[in-house]
Amino acid sequence: MTIRLLPQNLINQIAAGEVVERPASALKELMENAIDAGAGKIDITMIDGGKTYFSVKDDGKGMTPAELELAVERHATSKLPDEDLFNINFLGFRGEALPSIASVAKLKITSRTADSTEAWCISVNGGQKEAVKPAAFGKGTLVEVNDLFYATPARLKFLKAPQTEMGYAKEIVNRLAMAYPKIAFSLTDGKRTVLNYSKTDNLLTRVAQVIGKEFDKNTVAVDAEYNGMKIYGFVGLPTYLRATSTEQYLFVNGRFVKDKVLMGAVRGAFQGLIGHGNEGYPVLALFLHVPNTEVDVNVHPAKTEVRFKDSASVRGLLVGSIRRALTENSAKTSTTIGDIALAKSAPSILPKRQHSTEPSYITQMPQMSQPLMAMEVYSVKKDTPAEEYTETPIQPIIQTVAASEERPVMHSAETATMHQQTDFPPLGFAKAQLHETYIVSQTLDSIIITDQHAAHERLTYEKMMATVGTNPKTQLLLIPEIIDLNQSEVDILTTWKDELAKMGLVMDAFGYDSIAVREIPAILDKTDIKALIQDLADTLKEFGDTVVLQDKIKDICARMACHGSIRSGRKLTIEEMNALLRQMEQCGTSGQCIHGRPTYIELKLNDIERLFGRK
């Protein structure tokens, strides 16, 4: 066939297919228009999931009769003052939302400006525009949509059940409500109120309303600026995770986006704080503002994807600011952990905990006297000579770790003196070791239980990361350790041998199916070298080519740290326990192990007393 021009109604329906996927996508366009109009309150009604009827009412600046006429024309907009598509200061600008909706539904707009004595309305049914008429209405705008897709009935079958479509609508309202806390929002289904957010000047209050009440007790604030860009918002603690990434809200210049650069930056920031696999996803709400000329918001019809001119700087800003916020608040662990433990202990007698304004976990940690990466962290291992651990900034010094397996655990005179004090350090003084795995310590008003392996694993990991590329201390093996592997494992390890050498692990291929290990990091002394090499080979094979080098190195360090840490079943003296606790207090990320699980939990004395009916 020859080339032909499409009729106007078909052009409108094609445009509608880009903008109006379902009631929620049309709702998003109408809500953005209301926000751009300066609304202080937006009320939404959706009947039958929006298929039968939905409306958006706002108290914004309204429209004149002439503006109503233009509003339903394609490519008409008040949001692009010049011809620069990169200088967009509004949420909506495409000039297609209203005519696109009108081409597949029955649309009615009623509006009045503040200086007008009467309102006006216009109706468009299936693309057929009627004349503007007088109407009764207050200041602002009401947009009503009836019988969505009545003009294209084939598209109705692609819609889900009403409750599912309402769920999509709720998510749209939640996203915009989070980005604009100074606007009040309500959503009803014609019978009941589904969502109701009053306006607030406190961003965290609005974010917690959307994500959940516990979020404000399990979050740290992010606030940073760089090169004309600004990032602010909140990230959940590495121990406060969700099963999916649906609770990760990222906004660019007020728009909710699903951007690969930003999502990758989040993963990079939490690298080493939560584990690989199914441990969970962090919860966050972050707001990035960049100059309009530095971001293109036109790359997706729904404006949920963006393109940054300098994506490396954006990634660096996010990773650095998130990581710094988590490090500065590393002593906080999820407030839900202790509650869950207590509730499981006696669910029938423990009253529902009333959270005070003070978190139930330690929040006051001493400021690091020196940068984290300059710290000395020690791997305390069984049968290691004490003279190897003479350089330490932490007291009391670990005197020996090679005593009998049957020795009793008791307090030294120095430790007993410390326990008489009322000035407890943040993680308290060690009192006992249970099941050769858990350290029990006491603070002024709580009991803390620390997982010795998880805690030391974190310390070892940070020590290893601090030495990457800086000639780390190594231990030369008098006789190289020969590890039998398959040829693919040998190939992947030899490919990575230069990077591994920077971390203190020196090896070479030994034939086609073996590896000769010649040096290991000093911090991994006495480790099972064969198990370590096999684990590293498996890890490197998992990566493929999908992860950046720095992220791979972090995972390799995590694997090595796990092999080089104090194991469960290892008896510790009180001095050794206290030394470990003091090192944790100096480490910027000691609240979580490298897999994202807590290294300790704190049980407040008041909760324990309620557990026993004493309060």
Report what the structure shows.
The protein has 615 residues and is of the alpha+beta class. The chain has three domains: 8-197, 2-Layer Sandwich (Heat Shock Protein 90); 203-328, 2-Layer Sandwich (Ribosomal Protein S5, domain 2); 379-402 and 411-615, MutL, C-terminal domain, regulatory subdomain (Ribosomal Protein S8, Chain: A, domain 1, 2-Layer Sandwich), CATH 3.30.1370.100. 32% of the residues lie in helices and 21% in strands. The chain contains 17 helices and 25 strands. The strands form six sheets. Strands 1, 2, 3, 4, 5, 6, 7, 8 and 9 form a nine-stranded mixed beta sheet that branches. The chain has a five-stranded mixed beta sheet with strand order 10-11-16-13-14, sandwiched between helices. Helix 2 (23-36) runs parallel beside helix 5 and helix 12 crosses helix 14. It starts with 7 loop residues before the first helix and ends with a helix.
Features:
about 625 residues; alpha+beta; Heat Shock Protein 90; Ribosomal Protein S8, Chain: A, domain 1; 3 domains; nine-stranded mixed sheet; five-stranded mixed sheet; 25 strands; elongated
Task: List the topology elements.
Layout: H1 8-19, H2 23-36, E1 41-47, E2 53-58, H3 65-71, H4 97-104, E3 106-112, E4 119-125, E5 128-129, E6 133-135, E7 140-146, H5 162-179, E8 184-188, E9 193-197, H6 203-211, E10 219-226, E11 229-236, E12 241-242, E13 248-252, E14 255-256, H7 260-269, E15 281-282, E16 284-289, E17 295-296, E18 307-308, H8 311-328, H9 335-345, H10 413-419, E19 429-434, E20 438-442, E21 446-451, H11 452-467, E22 474-484, H12 487-495, H13 497-502, E23 506-509, E24 514-521, H14 529-543, H15 549-563, H16 574-586, E25 600-604, H17 605-611
Parallel strand pairs: 1-8, 13-16
Antiparallel strand pairs: 1-2, 2-7, 3-4, 3-7, 4-5, 4-6, 8-9, 10-11, 11-16, 12-15, 13-14, 17-18, 19-20, 20-21, 21-25, 22-24, 23-24
Helix pairs in contact: 1-4, 2-5, 5-6, 7-8, 11-15, 11-16, 12-14, 14-15
